[in-house]
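[job 0412] stage=complex_fold ligand=zinc ion status=START
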Amino acid sequence: MIIITNGKIITPRDVLENHCVVIENGVIKQIVPDAQVPKPDDARVIDAGGAFVSPGFVDIHVHGAVGRDTMEGSVEALAEITKFHASGGTTALTPSLIGDTRERMTAALDAIQQAMDQKIGGARILGAHMEGPYVNRKQAGALPEHFIRDPNPEEYLPWLDREGLVTHMTLAPELPGAMELIDALMEREMVPCGGHTSATGDEIEAAVDRGLCHATHLFSAMSAVTKIGPIRVAGAVEAFLADDRTMVEVIADGKHLPPLMLRMTVNAKGVDNVCIITDATAGAGLPEGAEYTVGATRAVVHDGVGVLPNNTALAGSAATMMRVVRTMVEKAGVSMSDAVRMASLNPARVLSLAGRKGSLEPNKDADVVIFTPTFEVQTTIIGGRIEFQRA
Ligand SMILES: [Zn+2]
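[job 0412] stage=complex_fold status=DONE, emitting structure tokens
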């Protein structure tokens, strides 16, 4: 048994003081006032020292860390990535693939499968997010353009038919064959996400009618309102902001989007329909000036973010989930419990895992992060095991 005392406990609606969290057999047993805390002899007591006790963060869009990338197709790389992100408060994640050759994408999925089977430690892998290859070349951003292609069932069905592996896929709904791809994802209870898209608002709406329900990094690599002749035409951004059947995710590292746009997103969608993600690359955890690659593209860590060497685009972030929570609170003016909900419960809901992850409630997995008022992660507990402890 683990008992966490003396913390400010973040629940979906509130912050509780003078309560403790009791963990047993890998799950949260109860949250009780300090006066009622059980005191068995074998309990390990963690004194949070007045820090926040939060549900562990769930990152549904993350490519890498410490120089390692999901596309290496290596269990060892995934172990380093999950270990690093656990130190940033992430207790569960879905490694993100980018477009590559069919063989290399299959190898990346193989490695994720093996890592899930082997229980490699660090943040728990929940499955794979495929960011492409079926996206719009005009909205490639930092994705390698020559690997972008139209949906081909002969290629994607073998990926999707691997049970319990792909959790969600980012696609551009305007591509030929995209609607059939949405159908194939829906049939397998995988989440179709719109992103790297030039779709008009009407095209997004048609895709949402078909089952598209999530926006991949809203605003980034996505069409917005334009004028055709004298008439304004809505883009993907407006459709996702307006349609309450959709959830959106934002890269809340404080660099990709100005705080005003983070606030605008929360105001438009409501706190329950926004996820915050890192979109972290291999650059996360590397020092200023360090070089890494996105696909075959070189990028460099500059001022806490990844940029292409010609400075034309950001190349994913160098953030942790703790940093994106911090940005929402300190820069976007969101309350602590709302920011944490966007980092934990909402992404768990996207993956239909809110029954066992995403909040501190009895019978849920004991995925807990303890962090100071200055947003420094002290302890990360995953499934009742301490996976990270600041020295
Ligand atoms: Zn990404």
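The chain has a mean pLDDT of 95.
[job 0412] exit 0
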